[in-house]
Amino acid sequence: MYALFAYGFTNRHLDHIVKEYYKDKTTIKNNEADNLLNYNEFIHRCKTRGYEKFALGKLYEIDVTYYSNVNYPSLIAEVKKQIVI
């Protein structure tokens, strides 16, 4: 997420990237984000806050360097096996 915002690609809620949020303000320029973490702080928080322990279910690690190489039918079949209705 840090890299996406730093390069101008974000649709995050303003409350995540500014210290003061006003309901009527809906957009800002990237250089106005006064609560954006730098890369080192972002990594530090990920490593020290136990984020790796948080899970909602089975973890699927997929190399998406090239999206065209992902076997989507196989992935979808695996996810469907985990869904309990």
3D structure, described in words:
The chain has helices at 2-6, 39-48, 72-82. The radius of gyration is 18 Å and the shape is elongated. The protein has 85 residues and is mainly α. The chain has one domain. It has 3 helices and no strands.
Question: Brief overview, please?
Answer:
31% of the residues lie in helices and 0% in strands. With 85 residues, it is mainly alpha-helical. It has one domain.
Helices and strands, in order, run as HHH
How much helix, percentage-wise, in residues? 25-40%
Question: Which residue ranges are poorly predicted, with pLDDT under 50 across at least 5 consecutive positions?
Answer: none
Q: Between the first and last Cα atoms, what is the distance in angstroms?
A: 32 Å
The biggest beta sheet, please?
Answer: none
User: What's the overall average pLDDT, rounded?
Assistant: 77
Helix-and-strand structural type: mainly alpha
Number of strands: 0
Q: In total, how many domains does the architecture comprise?
A: 1
Percentage beta strand: under 5%
* Overall 3D shape: elongated
Number of helices in the DSSP assignment: 3
Rg calc: 18 Å
Characteristics of this structure?
85 residues, mainly alpha, 0% strand
Helix-strand layout with pairing:
Elements (H helix, E strand, L loop, with lengths): L1 H5 L32 H10 L23 H11 L3
